[in-house]
Design brief:
By secondary structure, the protein is of the alpha/beta class. It contains 15 helices and 12 strands. It is 37% helix and 18% strand. A hairpin with a 2-residue loop joins strand 2 and strand 3. The radius of gyration is 22 Å and the shape is globular. 41% of the residues are buried. Bound molecules: S-adenosylmethionine (SAM). The site of S-adenosylmethionine (SAM) has 20 residues, from loops.
Length: 418
């Protein structure tokens, strides 16, 4: 491996402008491909804080600073930014706040439920009035046993809300206030603090099974206490919009109105026109590490979604070969939708304790689809207790790393000096 002191502009070009300190740029060989790898702390230091609007938890989500870094470096206002594995919608929300157009896709319908409403934010008074109108039917109970999570009165309030939302959906009457309430309630179903509807359990994006919750309750000698669903929805509403400027509301509304919010497979997105995406910033499902549908069973129940059917649609591969095949087809689709000169920033982690470096596998896969690899960017983040608790992958040296493979459509290979 060669190590050189290359000028930044010959490496990732515009993207490194305005970044944090670059620690190392080196030339490496990956599967016979000579490329550059750049290591630094690009978006944790000297960055303005992320918008509170992102604070919806989702398994394996990335920090908003990651997409912001690429969006500001590689796009202009009005360009369309896409995420084919959109999750809680981090990329598209950040893009909307930055006055870009947006396209989001995820095989899990919960992704759209959590993302789209945050582009059309209702006033707190409207939310309060709607919740008052919905009220609570004291006799309403769930068709499944949820007593290990909720006090009976809390359960009635949740079930009343669920029935109202499902009825409105069936009658095609759901409006932005309903969509907002559904998004907030979905994010509050279970968690580890009194800000959630449930008794203490794991963080909200990884609901445990009822049997496991019974054990947690016994171990902690706890019984579910009453939680006021209406008050908690209003509290979370205030928290999500704190710090948003009137301009943020306008930018999001504009991006949402013209946005594409798709539920489907990343390999087949016919609703996205050819050559319409300037930048993709995404993080695919990793090898067998996260079970998105299983972790979200309670969120699926609340939204009347068949979690088992979703599980079948999601990519949960155990072998590297089959993972690479899914990604190869995804890259072919990304090549179709990307404008000439546009970029793909593909974030992967180290899996199986660093024994598999997915970045090095992604490089030839993206090339096979026609993209030019610009290099691998490794963002080092200082270890934080929170990231550990919330299940963000940490490597052994006590840091979190994001590994991003950057591709461009239709340029010649960058000059990599010997
Ligand atoms: C690592 S998460 C993305 C998280 C996202 N970056 C965020 O900040 O929330 C991967 C996502 O891929 C979705 N997914 C899995 N297989 C898929 C497929 N074949 N097509 C589209 N989405 C898929 C999962 O539902 C999950 O939301």
């Amino acid at each position: 491996m060669d190590t050189g002191n290359y000028p930044e502009e010959t490496f990732f070009g515009d993207v490194l402008r305005g970044s944090g300190p670059v620690q190392l740029i080196e030339t490496i060989d990956v599967s016979g491909i000579r490329t550059r790898r750049c290591t630094g702390e690009f978006w944790t230091s000297n960055q303005r804080q992320a918008s509170s609007l992102h604070e919806i938890s989702y398994r394996a989500c990335f920090k908003p600073q990651l997409p912001r870094f690429f969006i500001t470096g590689l796009t202009q206002e009005g360009d369309r930014v896409y995420d084919p594995f959109s999750g809680r919608g981090t990329t598209v929300l950040e893009a909307g706040l930055l006055r870009r157009r947006v396209a989001a896709n995820d095989a899990n319908p919960l992704s759209k439920i959590l993302t789209q409403p945050r582009f059309f934010i209702p006033g707190e008074q409207e939310v309060a009035a709607r919740l008052a109108k919905i009220g609570s039917d004291k006799s309403a109970t769930a068709e499944i046993d949820l007593s290990m999570f909720y006090d009976p009165k809390t359960e009635s309030e949740i079930v009343t809300l669920r029935n109202y939302l499902l009825d409105r959906e069936e009658a095609c009457e759901t409006d932005p206030v309903d969509f907002w309430i559904r998004m907030v309630a979905t994010s509050r179903l279970t968690g580890h603090s009194p800000g959630f509807f449930s008794v203490y359990t794991l963080p909200p994006n990884q609901a445990v099974s009822p049997d496991r919750q019974v054990l947690i309750n016994a171990q902690r000698k706890q019984v579910p206490e009453y939680r006021n669903v209406r008050d908690l929805i209003l509290r979370k509403t205030r928290s999500l919009v704190r710090g948003l400027s009137p301009e943020d509301y306008r930018n999001l509304n504009k991006a949402g109105t013209d946005g594409l919010f798709l539920t489907g497979d990343s390999r087949n997105t016919p609703k996205i026109p050819d050559a319409s995406i300037r930048l993709t910033v995404t993080s695919p499902p990793f090898l067998d590490t996260v079970q998105y549908a299983k972790d979200n069973w309670l969120r699926c129940w609340f939204n009347g979604i068949d979690g088992d059917a979703i599980e079948r649609d999601l990519t949960v591969t155990r072998s590297l070969e089959s993972w690479c095949r899914v990604m190869e087809s995804t890259f072919r689709e990304l090549f179709r939708v990307t404008v000439p000169g546009g970029h793909v920033a593909f974030e992967v982690g180290e899996v199986r304790r660093g024994r598999i470096r997915l970045d090095e596998h992604v490089l030839p896969v993206g090339m096979a689809a026609g993209f030019t690899p610009m290099g691998i960017l490794i963002n080092l983040q200082r270890f934080t207790k929170t990231s550990h608790i919330w299940g963000v992958g940490n490597n052994d040296s006590g840091t979190n790393t994001n590994r991003i493979v950057l591709f461009q459509k239709g340029t010649s290979l960058p000059d990599v000096r010997e």
